[in-house]
Amino acid sequence: MEITILMDNEKNDLVYRSEHGLSMLIEWNGTTVLFDTGKSDAFMQNAKLLGKDLTKVDYVVLSHGHYDHTGGLEAFLIFNKKAKIILKKEALDERWSVSQGYNRKIGFPLRKRFEQLNERYMFVDETQEIVPGLIVFTDIAKQAGHTFTDSYLFVQQNHTLVPDTFKDELFMAAVHNDKLTVFTGCAHNGVENMIRTAIEYTGIKKVEFVVGGTHLNRASEQQVKRTIMELGKFDIEKAAFNHCSGLQNIPRMAASLRGDIEYGYAGTRYVY
């Protein structure tokens, strides 16, 4: 398995582009999966620099409906004519942020044109393997008392904005060498809940790798401490947290957790 971070807020070399967004390429047993598409076509430029042919992508998995994970999809679909797009129906709901003191749309740019692309979309409402050993999780089991880390985010329901509980979110895991690799987008529903869900579903407790966002960049001190404490309950060999995790939180995680913890920069490759 080879995992390439095509886009992130930060980059490991000036040759690559970076933006507020996330995109990862997973090459797995003859199947190629694009996990999120950043907010523009910049991930495609990085893919070319990294020698990755995106015409070979078989599936696009969209972790949730925010623009910084779905904004590059239109450019990709022009370039790639075969890939199926896996997402939850709730990703089409309009989403808003008030983090800058005013209401601004942050939803899926192609949400109003999905019918034009209907033959490309695969809406999922239950956990399933897309290929043997590669699982898309649609139901994230949250612990009692779970709280969301960001009160600035809303979803539009019947012309009214209500706090977003992220029903559009999914994540992905691979069973590799009898261990788990977990892929997150923003982990609005909690990275610890995603890992626990994957363990309970597969019965595999050893986590080889976790890669993606944790949405701790605007979390309270209490939330950061709680997340680190919960992550410490798992047997995680390695993690590359990025995007919305907060650069300042990575050294804290590395100091507190047993595994090898680092920031997952755009342009980084991991081979297992």
Could you characterize what this model shows?
The chain is α/β, with parallel strands linked by helices. It is built from six helices and 19 strands. It has helices spanning 42-49, 67-70, 73-79, 191-202, 221-231, 249-256; strands spanning 2-7, 23-28, 31-35, 59-61, 84-87, 95-97, 104-105, 121-123, 128-131, 134-137, 153-157, 160-163, 171-176, 179-184, 206-213, 235-236, 238-242, 260-263, 269-271. Strands 9, 10, 13, 14, 15, 16, 17 and 18 form an eight-stranded mixed β-sheet that branches. It has a seven-stranded mixed β-sheet with strand order 8-5-4-3-2-1-19. A four-stranded antiparallel β-sheet has the order 7-6-11-12, with no helix packed on it. Strand 11 (153-157) and strand 12 form a beta hairpin. The longest helix is centred in the last third of the chain and has 12 residues, at 191-202. The model has no long low-confidence stretch (mean pLDDT 95).
Topology:
Layout: E1 2-7, E2 23-28, E3 31-35, H1 42-49, E4 59-61, H2 67-70, H3 73-79, E5 84-87, E6 95-97, E7 104-105, E8 121-123, E9 128-131, E10 134-137, E11 153-157, E12 160-163, E13 171-176, E14 179-184, H4 191-202, E15 206-213, H5 221-231, E16 235-236, E17 238-242, H6 249-256, E18 260-263, E19 269-271
Parallel strand pairs: 3-4, 4-5, 5-8, 14-15, 15-16, 15-17, 17-18
Antiparallel strand pairs: 1-2, 1-19, 2-3, 6-7, 6-11, 9-10, 10-13, 11-12, 13-14
Strand segment count: 19
The fourth-level CATH homologous superfamily is Ribonuclease Z/Hydroxyacylglutathione hydrolase-like
Kindly identify the CATH topology. Answer: Metallo-beta-lactamase, Chain A
How many structural domains are formed by the residues? 1
Q: Which series of helices and strands comes N to C? A: EEEHEHHEEEEEEEEEEHEHEEHEE
How large a portion of the residues is in β-strands, by DSSP E? 25-35%
Indicate the CATH architecture: 4-Layer Sandwich
Tally of DSSP helical segments: 6
Looking at the structure, what is the overall shape?
A: globular
Low-confidence stretches: none
Helix content: 10-25%
Q: Average the pLDDT over all residues and give the rounded result.
A: 95
CATH class type: Alpha Beta
Distance between the termini: 5 Å
- Main sheet: strands, sense, barrel: 8 strands, mixed
Estimated structural class: alpha/beta
Compute the CA-based radius of gyration.
17 Å
GO molecular function, one term: transferase activity
Protein name: ComEC family competence protein
Organism: Saccharicrinis fermentans DSM 9555 = JCM 21142
InterPro entries: DHPS-like_MBL-fold, Metallo-B-lactamas, Metallo-beta-lactamase_dom, RibonucZ/Hydroxyglut_hydro
